[in-house]
Amino acid sequence: MSMAGNLRKVTRLSKVGGLRKVARLARRRPGVDLSHPARSPLGSSVVNCVTYRDGSRTSGGGDVVEAVERVRGSRHGFVWLGLHEPTDQEFAGIAELFDLHPLAVEDAVEAHQRPKLERYGETLFAVLKTVCYVEHEELTATSEVVDTGEIMVFVGADFVITVRHGRHGSLGPLREDLEADPEKLAKGPAAVLHAVADHVVDDYLSVTAAVHEDIDQVETDVFAENGARADPGRIYQLKRELLELKRAVVPLGRPIEDLATRPIRVVDPEIQAYFRDVLDHLIRAKEQIASFDELLNSILQAHLAQVTVAQNEDMRKITAWAAVIAVPTMVCGLYGMNFDHMPELHWRFGYPLVIAVISVACVVLYRGFRRNGWL
Fold first, then answer.
1. What does the pLDDT look like over 82-129, one tens digit per residue?
2. Which pTM was predicted?
3. How many alpha carbons lie under 13 Å from residue 294 in its C-beta half-sphere?
4. Within its chain, how far is the Cα of 86 from the centroid?
5. Residue 173 CB partners (closer than 8 Å, separation 6+)
6. 38 HSE (CA, 13 A, CB side)
7. HSE of 332 in the Cβ direction (CA atoms, 13 Å)?
8. pLDDT tens, residue by residue, 172-195
9. Cα–Cα distance measured from residue 116 to residue 103, given in angstroms and rounded to the nearest whole number
């Protein structure tokens, strides 16, 4: 029976049967490794279901119920179940099978949660925000820079369930890396939780490095020769995207600190040392984001100052030209009053003289303004 068919039967029987009733309906079939696709091609939210013993992947199908029976029957090893955006119906049977708390199940299905760490009895529930840098040829006022998703992790004594939401953050390569390190994987489900947290935090550092390049480009454009004409919308867009990144990174500090320092039954003490390394990387990412925010504020203020200076320069030019034009305007207005007795009104050389005086006055004013940097 396929994983999808088995999952539907788990859901249908979750209210009337237990583990043994569901197990009688399950049949062994060769497993399909579906770690990498975002969604299982079998039509189910189950991406993968694997059992591990002494840090090594055991043989057997990808059937959820059978995997749980094998682990609980031997009382050794654990099950790693990977899901992608499950529905309420798809998750109901799994929640009963692993005895998950309803509040944690609701958070895992609905998503859009704040990063956190909660304990429900013997089960640990962690929410982590994943981030991905969105490539773009040119940063504009509407460019998407950071895309976010979520990974929920249920950790028990003999199981770990990862629930992923979003278009990115596949855990397939992570699973392969862990399987290549049996010694670490032998530490149990907490090793998977650490690997997921470490993977997510490393992505934070990668995204902050990419965002830094965008900030450098904006800074270069702002302080260029025509920086006053740069689009301030790009700066605001970067600040909005940086805020989205900040919402993913900053709240995760307390959960990682708890995992690194507080004694938790399902977390091996040796794994806690690894969480301290994750915490160091997370602090580094938080500091970078804070510095980026301050830098963007400085760039925005510098841009506004440049705009103000450019406006002042324009006003000085307008004022200088207005002063130059005021001379012929005044003289022409004076001689346009049509009085009979005006100086040089009927003199033969009166007109050339007035033109010469106007020209000389305009040239003197122009050179004076030019010398003072107004023109």
1. 999 888 888 888 899 899 999 999 999 988 889 999 999 889 999 999
2. 0.73
3. 6
4. 23
5. 35, 36
6. 7
7. 8
8. 888 889 889 889 888 889 999 999
9. 13
